[in-house]
Amino acid sequence: MFPNTLTVSINGADVVLTKILEQNYSGEYFAKISTSGEVRLRIRHSKTKATATKMAMDRHNVEIISSSYATALTDAYDIKSYFVIEGPPRYMNSTVNAHGLFALAIASSDAFLNQLLNWES
Predict the structure, then answer these.
(1) Which phi-psi region, left, alpha or beta, contains residue 46 (left: φ > 0; alpha: ψ -120 to 50)?
(2) Which of 8, 15, 30, 47 is most exposed by smallest CB count within 10 Å?
(3) Structural domain of residue 60, as residue ranges?
(4) Residue 65 maps to which CATH number?
(5) Mean pLDDT on 75-91
């Protein structure tokens, strides 16, 4: 079980999010950022059943939404980032793909993410 608080870095500042909901294999964390906005982090888990042509799958999703409130000079907006790890339950103890992808995004000192945001492929 995740703790009651999670700390994430938003715009270079550590933000402590507090768990506000936990039910049905999901959780939601929240932090208000003074009067300028808020941050929500959601964790969800789900399963799909096996069919004649597909194996059963476990799906794990983490989503973070940073919301800025409207002011006299700016509109309100959200920035959403998320990742999904999905695969057959008997193989889910291997996080090789996720670990490699996250390491690529982090090890490049954000160059990979910046290139992505510049529509490079």
Answers:
(1) beta
(2) 47
(3) 5-87
(4) 2.40.160.220
(5) 93
